[in-house]
Design goal:
About 5% of the residues lie in helices and about 30% in strands. The protein is mainly beta and about 120 residues long. The protein starts with a strand and ends with a strand. The relative contact order is 0.29.
Length: about 120
């Protein structure tokens, strides 16, 4: 059983008993393929604060990676430049899964607590 399921039809990401509204695509032809993505340990990056369990990288301090509260982060999906991140104020993503909830702290903390684990994301 995957840790997270991204449902393209309902535009939701579900995992660990929670659900987030998402969007993917809309900026390029780089549509996210339907498959299971394996997220390696230490794949969570943060740009707006220092946080244990996340690697600090200034790239993720840009508005396109921030939620409405200013938290900017990125979880690499283990393939190319694809990841899960707050959608920011952009109209879409380039194949990534963009969280559109105004606050993404709950998902960030959930990922941070599991940063030493391999996670799986099913895209269907």
């Amino acid at each position: 059983m995957p840790d997270f399921i991204y449902d393209k039809n309902s535009q939701t990401l579900c995992g660990f008993g929670k659900t987030w509204r998402v969007r993917s695509g809309g900026k390029s032809d780089a549509a996210l393929k339907s498959k299971v993505y394996t997220v390696p340990p230490l794949a969570l990056m943060v740009g707006t604060e220092q946080a244990s369990g996340a690697i600090h990288h200034s790239k993720y301090d840009r508005d396109c990676f921030k939620d409405q509260n200013g938290l900017g982060w990125f979880l690499w999906l283990g393939e190319g430049g694809l990841g899960i991140h707050p959608n920011g104020n952009d109209a879409g993503t380039q194949g990534c899964i963009g969280i559109v909830n105004s606050c993404t702290r709950d998902l960030f903390d959930l990922l941070r607590e599991r940063s030493n684990q391999t996670l799986s994301v099913l895209v269907e």
